[in-house]
Amino acid sequence: MNDASSTSPSPTAAMLVIGDEILSGRTKDRNIGFVASYLTQLGIDLKEARIVPDETPEIVSAVNALRARYTYVFTSGGIGPTHDDITADAIAAAFGVGIDHDPRAVEILKRWYEGRAELNEARLRMARIPFGADLIENRVSGAPGFRIGNVHVMAGVPAVLEAMMDALAPSLARGTPVGSVSIDTGLGEGRIAGPLGAIAKAYPTAIIGSYPYFDGGKHATVVVVRSRDSAVLEAAAAAVHAMLADLA
Amino acid sequence: MNDASSTSPSPTAAMLVIGDEILSGRTKDRNIGFVASYLTQLGIDLKEARIVPDETPEIVSAVNALRARYTYVFTSGGIGPTHDDITADAIAAAFGVGIDHDPRAVEILKRWYEGRAELNEARLRMARIPFGADLIENRVSGAPGFRIGNVHVMAGVPAVLEAMMDALAPSLARGTPVGSVSIDTGLGEGRIAGPLGAIAKAYPTAIIGSYPYFDGGKHATVVVVRSRDSAVLEAAAAAVHAMLADLA
To answer: For chain A, how many structural domains are there in total?
Structure first.
């Protein structure tokens, strides 16, 4: 079997995190790492991530730059009921479409809040969806996300974002997943850099990364070999093991 | 005393994380959160963060977009000794300057490796510094970072990046730190959204954020009031407490 990636290029993606609280340091983002791992498993290449504040022009400009460039865009944050939740309006502005209470979303919220809490004006705000968008189910807290064009708009609370990724994943085109082999060399980067560079040159279609870590007393390095072609992956990983045997 | 921020605008900043390993999900970034909190304490507003892969055109284009727009840029990743460490060359390309072994950096590496390890060709690569740059001290692992123009180039290993931030911080212009008050309301966002929006309108110079969290069984919300003006901060926080007393 030939490598599928040589004939059909893999889908690409960008992640856009929207929220002052990440940029102030108050909240540590967990969504980029989650989406990165999730997309890697689907064979979709996350090529870029951005974090922008809760400001309409910043959101509009980032969404328009990213959606023009990548197969998919995923956003997190700013779709709740409060005054600082401006993402839905900003996405509508980015696409140049209107926005209003969506009857499908209103119905979902009615069912969700029945017997739980009053569906007040603020909660109803979460049914405001740009014209032409599809809804993304939220089994954790009711209020849906949405997809418009190639942009998937999700909540910022990690448990909700994770449920929304599960809900939307079946609609995504997938690529050949990138296989990877991690090798903890036990050696500092400076020790392995020369021969590792030669291996990287010998296997130009493999992506060979060198990730130093420092565990308090010792500097060491994990080498990660990545490829969509399993034969290349195995050969390059074997070369790294042979290099370590030589250095020992 | 008047609010200093009304006369001298606060410095702004962007963070650029360079590394395939973050975008593949293999490594979870910790540097953005660290730099965000660090700059907030200095009164510098982090306005944007980006993560790009280890690809020269991506690094060049992000650095040039960000350095034109913000007072400072901080980068992490890609300045080690291995073949995939291309940040220093990419920064030189972004500034249109040459790059070579820097005598000051070579001297630092000679002293660092003396009695520890051989200063081989790969390790010497870490002394390649763009022309016109100043060095940033690295007391954790020797090899320096550098500053060129308004761009500060640091290592990706968190312990090293943190040491480099400490080393470079005295050179940064500071703003009036943004004061903040966090109030855990114990209530869902939909309950507080209406009156909180009214408070946000009444205190337009305060930044009032609403941060829902989900702890398994319960949806609740932390409200964060932020302002550089302590009188505004206290008044807006008092209004939030009064709102909660009304809702109780």
So the answer is: 2
